[in-house]
Amino acid sequence: MYLVTGGAGFIGSHIVEELLRKGERVRVLDNFSTGKRENLNFGRNLKPAVKDRDFPDAVQLEIIEGDLRDLDTVHKAVKGVDYVLHQGTLPSVTRSLVDPITTTQVNILGTLNILIASRDVGVRKVVYACSSSVYGDTEILPKMETMTPNPLSPYAVSKLAGENYCRVFYKNFGLEAVSLRYFNVFGPRQDPESEYAAAIPKFITTMLKEERPTIYGDGKQSRDFTFVANVVEANLLACPIPKLGGEILNIACGKKFNLLDLVKKINQILGTSIEPKHSEPRMGEVRHSQADISKAKRIINYQPRINFEDGLKKTIETFKER
Ligand SMILES: NC(=O)c1ccc[n+]([C@@H]2O[C@H](COP(=O)([O-])OP(=O)(O)OC[C@H]3O[C@@H](n4cnc5c(N)ncnc54)[C@H](O)[C@@H]3O)[C@@H](O)[C@H]2O)c1
């Protein structure tokens, strides 16, 4: 059985969907703070959130509404679980600057609770969703796992702490905890509404209304935009591979695009010519981001199957349907 923490969120719900499609038993632990119940509307009698997917007849999904910060709840959630895919986090660099304490409590204490409970019941593997933000601004691109982290926000500090706890639990208790550093994930179901929403869902919804998207800064900041299906695949690849404890792997496409490129590509797909607006750069943001993904290729046979352009087309299609 799989436990997906944060399973009602953007990435977590895609992992849950894929596991259910494969006929696996899945438990979700989520407090629905940034995630939504409707993201988990799978099954025979419920309309899948993504069309054209076949679901097994008996969908085996159990949902625990609870908080990662509560060790008793986490202990209940890991009971009988083989693999924990730990996606539950309070995301956003900006939110973490506004409220660093809650970010720290959820992301660090929550991860520590997951590791303690997983160790206690003998979980086979914990896959921890880490973030490219831990690198901060590096002089050299692409970013490699051997580089010294340089987090620029409380969010990035908290994600790095989780990764260090994974390593420490492996070294001291032999818990197979592996960290996947995701680079700017995007796709269907990513929340465009929140004040802390990521650029892609926000730009798409704004441009679908034929309005001008706001870029913070000059728009030349670049990202290794990664379609969510690639991240789902990386999580599932990591589960059965032995001796991954303490490892850190970049999960991305290995290419970079800046925000001006992003607006241009959305315009091309929509057949529009909308100009972005510019506003003050945001604090805590990394300037350039691009991953070296050779380690993930070598160790878990990870290959990004859907590139940025195809992922963007798929995402725009689903946003249009909404
Ligand atoms: N989206 C990205 O670009 C990106 C990039 C790098 C890393 N990540 C990591 O991927 C993971 C998933 O991110 P996402 O984009 O899907 O975010 P999301 O906000 O959509 O999902 C996070 C989920 O965690 C749940 N959660 C938050 N606090 C909780 C708590 N105290 N107890 C239980 N559940 C709680 C939320 O309700 C939500 O369902 C996070 O760990 C994030 O750090 C995401």
How would you explain this protein's 3D organization?
- The protein is of the alpha/beta class.
- The protein has a single domain, classed as 3-Layer(aba) Sandwich (Rossmann fold).
- It contains ten helices and 13 strands.
- The strands form four sheets. A seven-stranded parallel beta sheet has the order 3-2-1-4-5-6-11, sandwiched between helices. Strands 7-10 form a two-stranded parallel sheet. A two-stranded parallel ribbon has the order 8-13.
- Strand 1 (2-5), helix 1 (10-21) and strand 2 (26-30) form a beta-alpha-beta unit.
- Helix 2 (71-78) packs across helix 4 and helix 4 packs parallel to helix 5.
- The protein is globular and about 55 Å long.
- Mean pLDDT is 95; it is low at 45-52.
- The structure holds nicotinamide-adenine-dinucleotide.
Cα Rg: 19 Å
Main sheet strand line-up: 3-2-1-4-5-6-11
In quaternary terms, these chains amount to single chain
CATH architecture: 3-Layer(aba) Sandwich
Low-confidence stretches: 45-52
Structural class based on helices, strands and sheet pairing: alpha/beta
